[in-house]
Protein 1
Amino acid sequence: MLQSKLFTKTRKEAPKDEVSKNAELLIRGGFIHKEMAGVYSYLPLGLRVIKKIENIIREEINGLGGQEIFMSTFHPKEKWVATGRWNTMDDLYKVKDSSGREVAIGPTHEEIVVPIAREYVSSYKDLPFSLYQFQNKFRMELRAKSGILRGREFLMKDLYSFSKDEKEHNDFYEKSKIAYKKIFERAGIGSKTYITFASGGTFSKYSQEFQTLAVTGEDTIHICEKCKVAVNEEIIAEQKVCPECDNDKLQKEKAIEVGNIFNLGTKFSDAFDLVYLDEKGEKKKVIMGCYGIGIGRLMGTIVEVLSDKDGIVWPKEVAPFSIHLVELGDSAEVRAKAEDIMARLEKEGIDVLYDDREVRPGEKFADSDLLGMPYRLVISERSLKEGKVEIKERKTGEMNMVSEKELFDKVFLKKLIGP
Amino acid sequence: MLQSKLFTKTRKEAPKDEVSKNAELLIRGGFIHKEMAGVYSYLPLGLRVIKKIENIIREEINGLGGQEIFMSTFHPKEKWVATGRWNTMDDLYKVKDSSGREVAIGPTHEEIVVPIAREYVSSYKDLPFSLYQFQNKFRMELRAKSGILRGREFLMKDLYSFSKDEKEHNDFYEKSKIAYKKIFERAGIGSKTYITFASGGTFSKYSQEFQTLAVTGEDTIHICEKCKVAVNEEIIAEQKVCPECDNDKLQKEKAIEVGNIFNLGTKFSDAFDLVYLDEKGEKKKVIMGCYGIGIGRLMGTIVEVLSDKDGIVWPKEVAPFSIHLVELGDSAEVRAKAEDIMARLEKEGIDVLYDDREVRPGEKFADSDLLGMPYRLVISERSLKEGKVEIKERKTGEMNMVSEKELFDKVFLKKLIGP
């Protein structure tokens, strides 16, 4: 894409009302736009990140056999009354429909997905399966000061599993952990993200959170470096040692919850009578699990933990573009070369943001660092003369001059764009 | 995809509370699920159609230079007060935020997109551009009895153009017409869809609707068969002849509005002071247009106008799967052959729904007609013996026996999956 055509521009100053690093950098880069506290719009660069994150998640959840659906935002009141949550969920938004009836604005989708499942489940042959979606969720957050980490309106992947019995449920639950680890690795925060034991509700001793170390995190976790797992502060009083190896030397850290997986047991099957007939013709309850990842929150977390003083450092698989091609000077030769290289890179399936703007080199470099594509490629009079292009890796700052032949070497390109 | 793994099933009976053909067939086929009047969830088959429609639109709108964004659902009240629509738009949903402040639940996005544009527009050099999104919209419909044609919550593509002057605006407006025609052609309803002159508001004599002929349509249009354009009933009293050729023999027909394009002039630029400095340093107002396509409505219209007594007939480019592979009998040879053919088709990039269920052939054929993939491919003991597979085109009912060699002939495959 030509940067001159991109309707957004970078800003030098952060908006005064934003206190979080993620919102500050994302707004300065033109990735997002704040509409009100906890409510943001995603601009072209930001939406590209969202879509890349969604695609990673889609691939991994499809790998679990998940079937993608898209549920409604408006939920009938009676479904929420049926689960007892109409009056107990404090952050539930309610709105009057044209008929004068109240409806809920979905903060989570058990009330919708379970009645859907019920229409299609009657026999053990119909199980197991799992359903997921990417959807805007709405929660009446009292404090929404963390940028896109905690919104009143936020994008989420929610997955629900339906199993015949505990064993089948546990199998899926364990597989979901592996898929989640893969997702966070591909999103570039794998090494900083810990499976964390948290309180489990009615049906299991623990639930599992995925917590990413961040000094700005709202959560506190206690890490066992031996097992690479953690315990959430909320249960550390009763669980003073590592649940896996009994190690009592746990390291206290701040972290951001980027995902969670939860055994729902029969809580919602009970509410909606979600049952099936087993091989012997006996009625059994369906065992459920739910598995969430906040898409905006994941994007915000990546910015919180991977950015540096100059701006954002996008990991390869979630960057809006793989390469930021920067042209210096306004000679026809430089432009022709830049256009040629862009076309050839795009032919190889590589996303390129091409800075063709007529601005000073210093401004181009500063913008490039702020926007944070994994590689910056500079084409200038000088590079033309030398028959080489300059490549800078955003993460390490490492610079190299390479010939075009080297640049288009498949192995080199693969290294550039990953994974 | 294996049909045995699909969590939905077909139903013989239509739900009693659905009076529209689109909802009846889509619910019977397991494409959608009704949550309440005018509110539906999209199940795996339905979401596949939605995504195919979105991709067609994305390609064509990107071709116009449109930049994709994703705006918020919650809109600050003050933006709606600024345009004067807070109290005048009857179907606007309002909800109280945690702070006690009221917010609007977006029925359209001028109030959001114009302030966003304003942040980045200062000079004539920043124009023109256009922004679009796919978003859930919310409107307090009093009657919501048309299935997914008219919802309280509905998916929409909305595009907004920002131009320096009338000429630039008109250029884009004319190009958008061509893009829209292309979209409806690719969606399979091109020959039934007419550009229709409708009332234009403050800034132009007419706006343009795209109306698709349908006996169940809510709109009435008057067609000039010579020019292939139409006039909406609402302006026929003042416009009794074809606006293009003055032909007064117009044909009255029922139709569904699948899209519209509209000159907004400076209505919203005025409200938010969206101005720029021209080449001479003079302040000028930005000229806007808006361009909508209801995604769910388009899907529903395709069902209304293309289905037959046996079920849905999906056009090639929007079908959830290109081929419905049906295996008959339960011999290991038939299964092995079906799996082999599925794998080879998928390797060619063709979406296949493979009916591997253990049900009677009659049920499989009835389901296949109801679900409506463009081609049905039958593999049975008989076809194995003959060394051929049976292909039936859903639209025409035409059946052919072809050898595997013929099936995998590139030209033949291209014909199958189109475009």
Note: Residues 21-71+109-306 of chain B form a domain with the BirA Bifunctional Protein; domain 2 fold (CATH 3.30.930.10).
Protein 2
Amino acid sequence: MQFTQGLHRALQQRPDAVATVCNNRIRTFRQLHDRVARLAGGYTSLGIGCGDRVCILSLNSDRYLESYLALAWIGAVVNPANFRWSAQEIIYSLNDSQCVALIVDDTFTPMLDEIRRGAASVRTVIHIGDHGAPADTESHEALIEKSTPIPDLGIGGDALFGIFYTGGTTGTPKGVMLTHLNICTSALALLAEGALPADAVGLHAAPMFHLADMMMMTCLLLRGGVHVIVPTFRPEIVLDLVERHQISDLLLVPAMLQMLVDFPATSERDTRSIRRIMYGASPASETLLLRTMATIPTASLMQVYGMTETAAVMTVLPFSMHRADGQHKDKLRAAGRASFHVQIRVVDAEDRECPRGEIGEIVARGPNVMQGYLNKPEATQAALKGGWMHTGDMGFMDSEGYVFIVDRLKDMIISGGENVYSVEVENAIAKHPSVSACAVIGIPDPDMGERVHAAIVLKSGAHVTQDDLYAHCRTLIAGYKCPRSIEILESLPVSGAGKILKTELRKPFWSNQMRAVA
Amino acid sequence: MQFTQGLHRALQQRPDAVATVCNNRIRTFRQLHDRVARLAGGYTSLGIGCGDRVCILSLNSDRYLESYLALAWIGAVVNPANFRWSAQEIIYSLNDSQCVALIVDDTFTPMLDEIRRGAASVRTVIHIGDHGAPADTESHEALIEKSTPIPDLGIGGDALFGIFYTGGTTGTPKGVMLTHLNICTSALALLAEGALPADAVGLHAAPMFHLADMMMMTCLLLRGGVHVIVPTFRPEIVLDLVERHQISDLLLVPAMLQMLVDFPATSERDTRSIRRIMYGASPASETLLLRTMATIPTASLMQVYGMTETAAVMTVLPFSMHRADGQHKDKLRAAGRASFHVQIRVVDAEDRECPRGEIGEIVARGPNVMQGYLNKPEATQAALKGGWMHTGDMGFMDSEGYVFIVDRLKDMIISGGENVYSVEVENAIAKHPSVSACAVIGIPDPDMGERVHAAIVLKSGAHVTQDDLYAHCRTLIAGYKCPRSIEILESLPVSGAGKILKTELRKPFWSNQMRAVA
């Protein structure tokens, strides 16, 4: 099975149905298919071949989808960059995966020079923006216009589809290698769970570089549904699109859900076309879920819990468990149960299965589990110990197989739907000349779920402000990873073995609530 | 993904739900899991190892299901024998696949001596019947009782799951090699099509050796549904079970569907629990479908068109296209459209895709396509030419991707849901001393769909009756393959190139109807 499967099937079964809607561009599957076949021809003429790695750095667009499809068409491997990353982080991923080409939109062309200087392997830049293509770049539209369509090479199965970079616990990002089979099996399982049924009109509101939207994309392609695409999430634009295109399906991270229900106009607009909302990628509170049900009563909710390393899907909390009337209330805090294709266990530090109700690490096995981390055999071996993906998430399982997550990977912070690895932030802070020691934790934030908070010990006689520290970090890491608040301590609490006790640091902030429950 | 996935998942999520119902035996998933783990331990103690081939020769039973699961548990490869075959045909398959063990029920123990003499590789016989185990056999129940449970070896993915023998066009059966991935991906796709939703109670009415029931089995396992098992299909027993166990889902071949709607009591019994009927494996007439809808009005119908070589699934005609009110009437004769995981094309003799509406051979590509025919590299290469499974079925595709089958493999006869290859029957007939030449065709039969008919040229002065010929063939091939009617001709019609023109022979029988339309 290959990522392009859905496009071929849709062309065969509903060629003249609408495939993509983006800005004022509306295209059918026949048009999409033709454009992708030409674009693939164009890529080939630029010397991009099977197995070559190509980075996409762009906000959401129909051209982003076309790029994904055309790369898969010729067996190239995509590196969809997290557009919130700094140029240095993106350059790291380009060098790590030895990308030969970069696909970039208008928003990120200002970063081009720096990226080109830092990533010598990039021979070609393709521009997918609306403005004219910058110097020394190829235009996506021109490539489509001038190239001859070529047949799909049929690369799929265990062949690599993409390398998806996630923040690394050691401070460097890790490239998660996912195959066509990884992606397609997760998508099939989600369809079997009832996601995106026939005649779905789906909105790409989550960023296309992220595995969550990748599931929306793959499922919609397999269903032959309509892809409505918005560059970035903004409640007012989402509401406009829902009304205009009668959108039936949303996939949102909880931070987006929060923004949507907080937005005053949401309850006044016509949202009755919305039949289903999938959510995931970070914890959603019961309050948020109940508010969503009240604000958009036509929508059934489904939670998908997973991670990049498991091609986004591990457990599913189905529509039937999201009830506004309080039925199944005890399950609403669960992340769901193992989906059809996955085996899930909760294990102790020695990888022995924990009794039900006992907290341990959640591990997963199945056709959706990554091949490994690119160029990181040791990290791969640790993550896939014994053939099971060790998620780093702590939780327990009840007698009916529902998984409850009680803590994310000990030190990880989930802020606005993005994973922030504290070590990476600590590494940045530690480079500040005034800082002697530091520890970064997540503290509750009404908008972001958690926000990044730094506890700092200063060097003798030194001084630092919140603004100083933020500005310093911003030169090294993405804005969303930088600390939003700080506290100055005389010393950090340490265990007998000398390890910093973050649990102690967290206590004052989390005393009234459980942290990071799903 | 592995065949045992559903059992593990059901144990985790609904351990005390009913798993199997067979005769008066009712067992939960917890019990089924325990029995399978012990049985696997028992197999291991008998020296059956990973990769070993094991034949099952049995009517349907809960023990058949347990055997499938326990073999997959230890990575053994199953050869589920077609129980309508003669001992010689079964022996062929045992030798071809070098089976080390045979699992047999009471019905087939009378064949044991002959099979043992013919198949030297069979070291162990395991008895899954209700009566006492015959001499020199191991008892299934005793193995479960005395063995220690062992953990699932976790064999799956591209590992071989089974070798499924189909009648060979050259007169010898071919062993279709199917992997765990082949089976599981087809099952996931069927679930995505809406087959066997939550809380399904399914009936195993089709034989368990057949890929059609294998889909029922795998889907039901993945859903954690109830397996109600009947030894062989009989309308009165099926109706009893439907009432007693509130069966929601049936999978029937058209011959069974015909028997069910023809059975006088069907309309008088309470069949309201039946929500869905999947059918496939041979053509079903529009009349039969409309009668089914009228007789069991609570049932939605779904057609699945496929073959052993594609793990049973190629196209699906969904519930929504089966309407008693005449809507979508033009599609009711279609076999459906490519399912989520399959690519389907109609091609000419040079493998070029035919324009829509033009008749050609139906070919398929996808993760469900077999690895090949065991020990038959040339047949494998021919069948999988260019990476596409050449089905031998002739048909066309309409503008919406619906596939219409206009003729089965030119010479194949489908009788009572079973494929009968004419060459094999002709080989048998030709061995009769009175026969000079013969040709075997399928002719219309109200009960069987088609029946096997032989056109014969006698040797000079010789004589043969229908009964003679049947009895002669019965010593060589299974009863359902033997000719049910004969005609004596002076000569067979031949083409200029000397090939027998079966189309000419068929004409008088098929003048009023199209042959083998789906």
Note: Chain A is about 30% helix and 25% strand.
